[in-house]
Amino acid sequence: MKLVHSDFSALGNFNPSILQPDWLVRQGLIPDGALIDMRFDLGSRAVDFRAPPLMWRTTRERFTVSLTGDTGEKATDIEAPGAFAASIFEILSHTPIMGVGHNFHFEIGADSSVALKALEAAAHLLSHSFADPGQAAVGTMRVQYRGLRPQALVTLDMAEPTPDGRVRLMMNVHYSIIELSRAIEIARDARAVYEWVLAGFERMVNHGPAEGVTP
Questions:
Q1: CA 193 to CA 152: how far, in whole Å?
Q2: How do 152-158 and 166-176 pair as beta strands?
Q3: Are 158 and 171 in contact (CB under 8 A)?
Q4: What does DSSP assign to residue 74?
Q5: Of 89, 129, 169, 195, which has the fewest CB atoms closer than 10 Å, so is most exposed?
Q6: For residue 163, what are the contacts with CB-CB under 8 A and spacing of at least 6?
Q7: Which helix (H) or strand (E) holds 145?
């Protein structure tokens, strides 16, 4: 599987006027003189700031940091979004955080054995979805992995194969948070979360859904 996107998201109460490039430069989180792009999203009325290798968006309810993909997503880069967010949370220590999550998107060849097994597992898991009736999109699984991350809810989204024979698989790992210190810990834990969710997916593919997840 090829990693094509990764991000870290937090739900809470944020002030978009604070998380501006000049403030981040003063805090030493962005190099002084860095080239920063701004893109306004008319639909959400939010501004995307882009300072490679990171981009971020802040609304009143959500803060998201992702890799820009300018040099291609790499597993070695996945810690950067969470580390960036954790540094901000440490400075803005009174920020109310209600939930955080790491999101990893992969592409796999539609004709590969992994893709075929994953599609079979998806069909099985859809019948055990925790999503509200009528709200789950086709190919969406909401499942709880066993073991290592007892508070993590893992959502797997799998799109149908594209004309060029690729399947997009999204693994989203979310935590409900009470303490800011826990949010910071999880934000900096991207590597372990990434390896854990991949291991669970591999168990599901190789041994069946019951081995990788708890319906």
A1: 10
A2: antiparallel
A3: no
A4: -
A5: 195
A6: none
A7: strand 140-145
**Residue 44 backbone zone (phi > 0: left; psi -120 to 50: alpha; other: beta):** alpha
Distance between CA atoms of residues 122 and 78, nearest Å: 25
190-207 helix and 113-126 helix, angle to the nearest 10 degrees: 90
Which helix (DSSP H) or strand (DSSP E) does residue 108 occupy?
A: strand 97-109
CB 115 within 8 Å of CB 167: yes
Residues 6+ apart with CB under 8 A from 59: 14, 16, 44, 46
pLDDT digits (tens, 9 = 90+) for 192-214: 888 887 777 777 666 654 444 44
Determine the residue type at 110. Answer: A
State the amino acid at position 197 in one-letter form. V
pTM of the model: 0.78
Rounded to 5°, the CA angle 107-200-186 comes to 90
Structure tokens at 170: 């999204």
Confidence of residue 7 (pLDDT cuts 50, 70, 90): very high
The C-alpha atoms of residue 215 and residue 206 are separated, in whole angstroms, by 17
